[in-house]
Design goal:
Oligomer: single chain
Radius of gyration: 22 Å
Structural class: mainly alpha
Order of helices and strands: HHHHHHH
Length: about 130
Amino acid sequence: MFATESDSYIELLQKFPPRPIKSEAELLAVQEVIDALLDSGEITSDKQDYLNLLGILVHEYEEKYIQIPDLNGVELLKALIDELDLKQKDLVPVFKTESIVSAILNGRRKLTVEHIEKLAEFFNVSPSVFFSQS
């Protein structure tokens, strides 16, 4: 096991010296260390400091190498439907009919202000996320 109850900050640094993450393999190795520490029982202040350091490295890697697409409007709606495993009929309270849901998802109709307000309430998000940014 990676961590023991008595590991000091220096011991943790020596077991797995933190370095900037430059590959997916290095990211996985750091995540394994984080998981082992979190599963090891009590989180001492030394372990917390070390976890904070590893978290900063993971954050920097993700900021630099992992692209999160900017979704809005209908693309966001499609992603939410997929992520939450919804069916078109689940959105009838928002759009009144399945045919309107289908038309919007297929680009044959545009979202109205009323749709956006109801979607924001339905998904508990800001209405602004459904407005196109173009």
